[in-house]
Write a structure and sequence with these properties.
The protein is α+β, with helices and mostly antiparallel strands. It has 5 helices and 8 strands. 34% of the residues lie in helices and 38% in strands.
Length: 178
């Protein structure tokens, strides 16, 4: 019985070491994107995306939100499944472009999300472009090969479509990474 425990522990250690080595070879920076066409006008989509106090009502990964602001920036703190994440708005051009960044430099990851809203025949096309950074090599391995860079993005876009009343938009969701 102890022999199996030693073999199992040894195997997990070797697999973990291999994951870290592969993670060291992966680039710190990545780019991922997601796009969805939603049957709603850009103004309604913008309103949902920027009403941060309402995030817990439609985003399953957020339990509560605090608005924060300083003299030179506007932002918020999300509390939820992923812990505590602080965001800052870098650029806002209603209802077309919103750029946010993770403002907490102590996290093992960071980067920006650029939201673009373009009118379409159906309503609007929402595109998210993530310029992400993952500093920890094990997290880089897990993000690239286990979780995927676009998992949070896919969930966000589907929830956004549902929030503005489009329950059929999920079929049109497209993502990619580089």
């Amino acid at each position: 019985m102890i022999w199996w425990a030693i073999v199992s522990l040894g195997t997990l250690t070797v697999v973990g070491a291999i994951a870290v080595v592969i993670g060291w070879w992966l680039p710190v920076e990545h780019r991922a994107s997601g796009q969805i066409e939603i049957d709603a006008p850009p103004e309604r989509i913008w309103a949902a995306m920027t009403d941060i106090e309402a995030f817990p009502a439609w985003r399953s990964d957020v339990t509560r939100v605090e608005r924060v602001s300083a003299a030179d920036t506007v932002g918020w703190v999300e509390h939820g499944r992923h812990g505590r994440l602080t965001f800052a708005v870098e650029r806002a051009e209603p209802p077309r472009v919103l750029v946010t960044r993770i403002a907490d430099r102590s996290l093992p990851f960071g980067g920006t999300w650029t939201y673009e809203i373009a009118p379409s025949d159906r309503g609007a096309v929402v595109t998210i472009i993530e310029h992400g950074e993952i500093y920890n090599p094990l997290f880089r391995f897990m993000s690239r090969f286990v979780f995927g860079y676009d998992g949070t993005m896919r969930a966000y876009l589907s929830a956004l479509a549902a929030r503005v009343g489009d329950t059929e938009a999920d079929a049109a969701l497209r993502t990619g990474r580089t």
